[in-house]
## 1
Amino acid sequence: MLVVDGHPLLREAITARLRSMGAGTVHEAASVAEARARAQANGPCDLAILDLGLPDGSGLDLVTELRQLGWNRLVVLASSDDPYAVRSAFQAGAQAYLLKSASPAVVTDGVKRVLDGGVYADPTVAPLLATGTRVPGTDNTPRELSAREVEVLQLVADGQSNKEIGEALNLSALTVKSHLSRIGRKLGTGDRAQMVALAMRAGVIR
């Protein structure tokens, strides 16, 4: 198993918890660079537990990289219960999202669920996922946006054009336009700035 966290005490505590659950070899890394080196040296492990806020980069990028390298069981252990962070972790390929404030029992439950091939969200953040893609439209009625529509809106918020969004998501500019039309119908506005403002207010994008 692999544990990636910048805080030595927390890393040791997680390692000890995994060993008490019967883990064999547990590799540790304190940064994105160290984690990459460990991943290359040891290949896909049974499980990786990663912090999102690492000293030299984003744990989210690391989740995506490990996923592409064939790591199928990835658990995020983070201090943030921000709905955007939770959704982003799952969209990047994580199977579980646990809070650092979680009890040892919750951490054990999450790890066991992922090792059994399941998905787990810390009980504190689970309700956020249920409402996380709902954006009140101009009439204040909550509308459900798909994960792809949220991705498109985030890139709009980042100031990207339809062509740039298409390149980033491997879509044609026409498909991006149809996504934006659908979002516009759901939210009751065709104005890009207003769509972004509504989604930001709902915490769906940042």
## 2
Amino acid sequence: MGKKICVVFPGIGYHTDKPLLYYSKKYMMAHGYEIVDVTYGKLSGQLPEKIQKVFDDGWNKALDCLKTVDFSETEDIVFLSKSIGTAISARYVAEKGLKVRNIYFTPLEITMQYANSNGIAFHGTADPLVNTGELTRLCEAKNIPLYKYEGGNHSIETKDILWNIRTQEDIAEKYIDYLNF
């Protein structure tokens, strides 16, 4: 049996200690995955105004983080990604030709330039960084299931803590079903 790797691509301010990545990462650890955390340090620019600059900077830092990771003898690779991390992870898969299962948390429209159909996506409809209609169209074109959460922001949260907890549970059920261990 080969090794299993889960690479986590956070967002700019959404690190692995936040709910979407924290719980999905714990799930992967519980199922025997070696976890590789991509870290960017401080990125240039802000979203959405300087998206290309942030993306390019994050891409270079991710390449540096992953340069010693050997994917050649892996049984399974899963990429967990959030926000700008979704675009970086999708590009990494495209450029490296890896067979990866992708879980995209709040993908940006730029993500779909690189994404293949091997993934699922989650989106809050009140996300100020993404046009829900456009993301829906782009995901449909790539055959990527997009789960939308009415009123959720870029963290797929609202002011209602119980809504947030129920939503986290729903999201977890959907990615667990997708991973289907």
